[in-house]
Write a structure and sequence with these properties.
This protein is α/β, with parallel strands linked by helices. Helix content is about 30%, strand content about 30%.
Length: about 375
Amino acid sequence: MVQTVEYDVVVVGSGPAGSTTARVAAERGLRVLLVDRRQELGSPIQCSGAVSDNALNEAGVRPNDEFVSTPIYGFVTYDTHGNATTMDYRLYRETPLGYVVDRRRFDRYLMTMAERAGVEVWLKTDAKGYTPHEDGTVDVHLNRFGFPQQVRTRVIVGADGLQSQVGKWGGLRTHIKLSELASCLQLVIDHVETDGLLEIVAGHEWAPGGYAWLFPKGHGYAEVGLGVIRTITDKDARWHLDHFMQNSFMAERLKNCRILEVQGGGVPLAAPLKKQVADNIILVGDAARHVNPITGGGIHTALRGGIIAGTFLGDFIPTGERPTAEALTCYHERWLDELGHAMWKLYEIKTDIFREQSIPRRDQRLYDTLASYFSPHSEFRKV
């Protein structure tokens, strides 16, 4: 009979939230297993890879040429017609505000940091379910390289994305309304001029329910993309992106670009889950809807949420307390205090904007909100 290997924590999903949770927990002396069904981290790429310098510093991640595509120094926010508000932080600071990262390399870097902290990593390993025991532990049923295997743990961390299976195991309500799911499409292009600024375009004409963007990637490359809410348009994201590139005020800048890569997927613009824990289970990252509901940005919230979760587990596991949903609620409360309440406020702002029936007024409110969000004095600059 094969002996079941025991861990304090099993993390399912090795994106930024999962890898950070695993690393921080291991740094606090826990035995951690990190599993992912994929054999290539960072794929498929769902959206752009912009992350602030502040987010990296909080997570203890030093900017590194291994994953940084280019530094970012500010933002330009455009309305439908191309009128712009520019926030160039080079007027206030010499160092970059943030970076556009290569998501594949970034995710690998975070996983390597976790491994160096003592985390055991199993790729091409699918988590199938779990069986609880009377002593408060659970057996996690895995399929590793096509063969069944099981491990024992006290807490499972669901970092397995938007359609979290771990959340479903625990009976958590992970369903998302189509009206709050952005269909995103992004192209990696070349032959386009950029100036170290993230460019954001608001307006129903170009991106119904979302916005369009042009982000530099360095060396003459850029990312152009958009997110749309399919319940308010009868066209798909590809149609809207073609329309934007060919007919918007950016058409002249983009006319000579070549398409080098196509990326896309669903991004939640929803409220965080009201319940993020169950017996033996906590959720982080996209699985818990830890995504900025206005910008759709998820890297910062994933890193910060991973720190919160890993720190909580480092405090909780040594107590020997049974990991019931009630006991694990302390994690959710800690997350709300440190990050969640601000995300709920952003969700309320977004909901109020899109409640506006007049498209011109809605466009103006979205433009004003995005422009103020990216200002140096924004109360949400750390979300």
